[in-house]
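User: Fold this one for me? It's Tn3 transposase DDE domain-containing protein.
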Amino acid sequence: MKQAISHVVNAILNLRITDIWGEGTACASDSKKFGAWDQNLMTEWHIRYRGRGVMIYWHVEKNSTCIYSQLKSCSSSEVAAMIEGLLRHCTNMEVEKNYVDTHGQSEVAFAFCHLLGFQLMPRFKNIHSQKLYRPESGMTDAYPQLQPILTRPINWELIRQQYDQMIKYATALRLGTAETEAILKRFTRNSSYPTYRALSELGKAIKTIFLCKKRNP
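Assistant: Here's what I get for Tn3 transposase DDE domain-containing protein.
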């Protein structure tokens, strides 16, 4: 079935005239809850939408063609589903940017997307409360107009120390030797894990760059 879908999507992409449809390097991803019987092993109670069911997570390119879909439980990570779709869509589309809502992003997601060569483009519901991380220490008085939204400096030394480990995990995701959901759950259970903290630091830096571009296009 996935091969058939891939052939159909590729045929649609190949028939498009670039001058009219554009290059097609961006997609958006999101999930939708569907009700399901309790006997379904993946059925769970959804805390936001209320009621039992399952989630379908779609990746749709900007001209409304679905390049990947996946069945997931209500409690599984949308961040993991987002990364999985970017890596496993099995079409000829060269994805460079992926748009998500607030639930489809995290600082670790920013880090992994950066390491994997994708630009994460979230739509923040609470963008007014986001903080910008300082590029380095000793800049307490710099950017006086931004003081209310500035916070601590990025720990670049931690990123440098854990760089090889971060690349190892990113490579495992790209090659499919480790599941995205399993890696994120491992980090969530132990937030003091050095590689997790380094990924979080890298994600904070990439997220700060994104927010600066967002606020000052």
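One thing worth pointing out: The mean pLDDT is 90.
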